Amino acid sequence: MQYSEQVNKLILDRFSSQFLDFRQNIHSRDVASKKLTPLSIEFPVQGMDFETLDTFIKNKVQPSLSASNGGRYWGFVTGGANPIATYADWLVTTFNQNVSKGGDSIASALEQQTINWLCQLFELPDTYKGLFTTGATAANLLSAFTARQFAGRQQGIDVTKQGMNGLQVKVMSATPHASMIKSLGMAGFGQNNWQTIECNANSESMNVEALAKALNDCAEQSKVVIASAATVTGSDYDDLVAISALCKKYQAWLHVDAAFGIFERLISGKNGKTKGLELADSITLDCHKWLNVPYDCGVFLTKHVSLLQECCEFMAPYLTTSENEIPFMSLGVENSRRFRAFPVWATLMFYGREGIKANIESNMRQADMLASWIKKSTKFDLVKPCELNIVLFKPNLAVMNISSAECLNKLNSSGEVFLTPGRWKGQPIIRAALSNWSTTNDDVKKVITILEKL
Ligand SMILES: Cc1ncc(COP(=O)(O)O)c(C=O)c1O
């Protein structure tokens, strides 16, 4: 297909029709699709014309997608793509910049500015440097690499260049996210080779006294502490002030996974639940969660950018740059990189701090509305008070003869809502996480009606 003004117009026309169709119907379609089997199509030896392809996508692909971009997809921690970020994301593809290094475009400078703005948004000092990643998992992986390099430096080993070489390091955490454990495996620490620190009562947060003892008893020369702000099930926050003081005392690396919990800082500032976050050596956060920008978009921040650079830099003659700033390809996994900072930049420009805060507040009120109804209901038990945007509940077995798994299945197959499972104190529960900009109070009422009818 040759580009011409006419072809461009046709593509734009079909695109806007697909877009309007998908967006306008998102509230009435099934939240989780029931059609999951692959489409029966032969491998295309000869391509098809664009109009046939467009019709095929509209009739066969679109109807089988989930409404994860809508207001009642409450599984995992799923943000929607806000309209401005959606617009900016189309432009990212149109512009198709490769943000590997500077020198030919303003894109690197814009990514840098967006990282600085995120630090301002979350009241973090400008000593943090970082980059956009594909998500919180990739950011956690970079944290594991950087912590490993830090431990190596403590022991006179350049792990990036020499390999582990007998590195002695103990990783400690209370309730790390699954992606952090995955990252520990990928970075060579071992998925099963970390020390579990006891939690506080009725919480997933770390018991600071237990951490103090573990650090004191630790025989390994280097220590890494992984803290949470907040945990994905209980939305519990570790005491970062106390933990960072211990890390300082024992020269341990402190990483904080604040993928979605960092947004609480917009409500209570730096003295709220995330107090002490600014003391961490590195931080993970996710923009495709509560900032409501399209997938995939996370951020890794560290105060030790030279260690990160040591982990990720490998220059070839064709890659050299004359820029003063460290090229982004020397700070992350990928060399070629999407301009994923741009939808975040546009979101910050359009909504500003106040607009983003209003969205967080709205989701928190809605989560509270759901939790208050569950608390009063005889059919369901509220597993723990809702403090952020996550509601944990289960069927009351004395009234309803149904397990949490069966209940979850019924709710999800209603097509009205999508929720995911969790475990609380070893028991299966149902978890709702409200993080979408387009969720309305009517959405919450609709789900309450489904729960009532169950
Ligand atoms: C605390 C925390 N860390 C990491 C992740 C992984 O995020 P992603 O799926 O963006 O890699 C999540 C996802 O829910 C999370 O809640």
Summarize the structure in words.
The chain has helices spanning 5-24, 50-61, 83-95, 107-121, 136-154, 159-162, 178-186, 208-217, 240-249, 265-268, 305-312, 341-376, 404-413, 441-453, and strands at residues 129-133, 169-173, 194-196, 222-228, 253-257, 282-286, 298-302, 380-382, 390-395, 420-424, 427-433. The chain has 454 residues and is α/β, with parallel strands linked by helices. The longest helix is centred in the last third of the chain and has 36 residues, at 341-376. It binds pyridoxal-5'-phosphate. Residues 76-77, 135-137, 177, 179, 232, 257, 259-260, 286, 298 line the site of pyridoxal-5'-phosphate (PLP).
Mean pLDDT: 96
Shape: globular
Q: What is the strand tally?
A: 11
Helix content: 40-55%
CATH topology description of the largest domain: Aspartate Aminotransferase, domain 2
Please write out the topology.
Elements: H1 5-24, H2 50-61, H3 83-95, H4 107-121, E1 129-133, H5 136-154, H6 159-162, E2 169-173, H7 178-186, E3 194-196, H8 208-217, E4 222-228, H9 240-249, E5 253-257, H10 265-268, E6 282-286, E7 298-302, H11 305-312, H12 341-376, E8 380-382, E9 390-395, H13 404-413, E10 420-424, E11 427-433, H14 441-453
Parallel strand pairs: 2-3, 2-4, 4-5, 5-6
Antiparallel strand pairs: 1-7, 6-7, 8-9, 9-11, 10-11
The protein binds pyridoxal-5'-phosphate (PLP).
